[in-house]
Amino acid sequence: MSTALVPVDQVERMALAVAKSGLFGVKTPDQAMALMLIAQAEGLHPAIAARDYHVINGRPTLKADAMMARFQTAGGSVRWGEYTDKRVVGTFSHPQGGSVEIEWTLDMAITAGLTKNPTWKSYPRQMLRARCISEGIRTVFPGVVVGTYTPEEAEDMDPQQNQPAALRDMGPVLEVADFGSVMRQIDAAQTIDALNALRPAIRTLDRDARDEANDAAKVRAGQIRAAQAPVETLEANDEPI
Length: 241
Known about the structure:
The protein is an alpha+beta fold. It has helices at 8-21, 29-41, 48-52, 64-73, 106-111, 119-122, 124-140, 151-155, 165-168, 179-188, 192-196, 199-203, 207-237; strands at 53-56, 59-62, 77-83, 87-94, 98-105. Strands 3-4-5 form a three-stranded antiparallel sheet. Strands 1-2 form a two-stranded antiparallel sheet. Helix 4 (64-73) runs parallel beside helix 7 (124-140). The radius of gyration is 25 Å and the shape is elongated.
């Protein structure tokens, strides 16, 4: 059942709170906002994005348990066969996609070069299970996971792998700036260049805080220019005051 649409300004506030929390692998309000809009487009409350999704290596990922829950809600089923640290086998079935047996072994993971991730050494069975879930669901009913990976899959990927050039060239993702720190740096700025250097940090703030910081920067810029005016006049006239 779909939920009522949440106004964009409320989604923005939720996205900021999630980003500032440091949870779920979300590093910026923009990332949180994107995941929340995906959830809303699927008829879910935006906060569900924080529960079900993670951002791993810059990719939106759906937790294996959430992926399985969606598959079962859509009429799918799974029967587990062997379930050990060396081998996991599951049979996935759906009325629209038939049935398939998916096997993942530790030897397969080693051959694929996946076990460099230390999580494989601590939780091999869970990692094999996540691989089975993702492959099995994609095979018999891909509609419930289109465009997403499990966190376990994303952790095994190179952060730059398969990303469009435009995304690779964007550089590192900025952390969410602290509003108080930004305001103090604006007050302490002694040059226009110092104020301009704060622009990237200001852009990570939520809308209200961003507007306030921009207004403060404009005021400070006026003060800096006013303080420099007598020097500029002296240089132009080449006469003492």
